[in-house]
Amino acid sequence: MNEQPGNGHLLGTDDGGRDVFSRLMVGTGLSLFYGASAAMVALVLGAVTALIAMSMGRPVELALFAVVDLVRALPGILFALAFIVAFEPGAFSVVLALGVSFAPNFAMITRATYEQQMAQPYTAAARVLGAGRGRVALVHVLPNIGGALITQFAIILPRCIVSESVLSFLGLGVSSELPSWGRMIATATPYMEEAPHALLAPILMLSAVTFALAIIGNAQRQRLTHTSKRSSA
């Protein structure tokens, strides 16, 4: 137990004698899956509800975004903690909690892009031809805000991964039997002096992956910004 790297174990073993490298690879897949699932829930929930509210008129829009502002006022991790405690700890609750907490980001992007697109001639022409606000939003506006939503997804994804790892570290995420990064960090923390390799491996992997995803998201945002500027020029 807590063997150092070598002797057939690339990254050593943990306190239970389990191969750290194997668990790290499994944990990478789990953390990416749960993070991506949470980001997808946030995208669908935020974008769809915002589009529906915007297409139903000003009163519905104001009511929805009052709730959005309330959720945004709370720290994301605190909201997720309260959500999970109110229901039941587990992978499904974590994905749903993070999806709800990050949905306002997509709602705000959808709102801003919707208003921009509704000012374009093609949407005005569609409404003159008899298309209702709902049809214009679904058929004409939604395809044109896809780029903005994908960019926001790339930005939110690493935040979801980190948040999931924090919740798993606190024991509110995935099952304790599953080696997500947060669980691995929590398990290895009591043995950080005698087996630092078991602690450093998931920490470094979490840092590297989220940093890389953050760079990709920022590059995507800059590319979209430059494209929008060229289009409006």
Please outline what is shown here:
The protein is an all-alpha fold. It contains nine helices and no strands.
Radius of gyration of CA atoms, rounded to a whole number: 22 Å
By helix and strand content, what is the structural category? Answer: mainly alpha
Q: How far apart lie the N and C ends?
A: 64 Å
Count of the separate structural domains: 1
Number of strands: 0
CATH topology: MetI-like fold
Overall 3D form = elongated
CATH superfamily heading: MetI-like
| Largest sheet descriptor | none
CATH architecture: Orthogonal Bundle
> How would you state the average pLDDT, rounded?
81
Notes on the structure:
This protein has nine helices and no strands. It is mainly alpha-helical and 233 residues long. It has one domain (20-232): MetI-like (MetI-like fold, Orthogonal Bundle), CATH 1.10.3720.10. The chain starts with 19 loop residues before the first helix and ends with a helix. It is a multi-pass membrane protein. Belongs to the binding-protein-dependent transport system permease family. The chain crosses the membrane at residues 32-55, 62-85, 91-114, 135-157, 199-219. Keywords: Cell membrane, Membrane, Transmembrane, Transmembrane helix, Transport.
